[in-house]
């Protein structure tokens, strides 16, 4: 069987396909980097470019997954949190409503929670 040497590689002037790595793959790349392994071999193994390897090395790729945003109604959020802590410290039950939707059904489940802080 003959194999095309350009298979899996973009030709000159073309962009490589977009590859999204899972967290475990990123952790594997970090382990390989710590061992001092060749970046070119990792680029081929994970089908990513050098910039992706460097982003993972500097931590940019993992930090992007964990960006936190401020709530739109920050004051309301603070007041609601204070109320929640107060009710939990009193031992009052909180009613939790869970809504599960599928393409054919909607199911509501109500649960009393007792949270002690």
UniProtKB/TrEMBL annotation:
Molecular function via GO: DNA binding
Matching InterPro entries: HTH_Psq
Domain HTH psq-type positions: 15-60
Top-level taxon in the UniProt lineage: Eukaryota
Name the UniProt record assigns to this protein: HTH psq-type domain-containing protein
Lineage of the organism: Eukaryota, Metazoa, Chordata, Craniata, Vertebrata
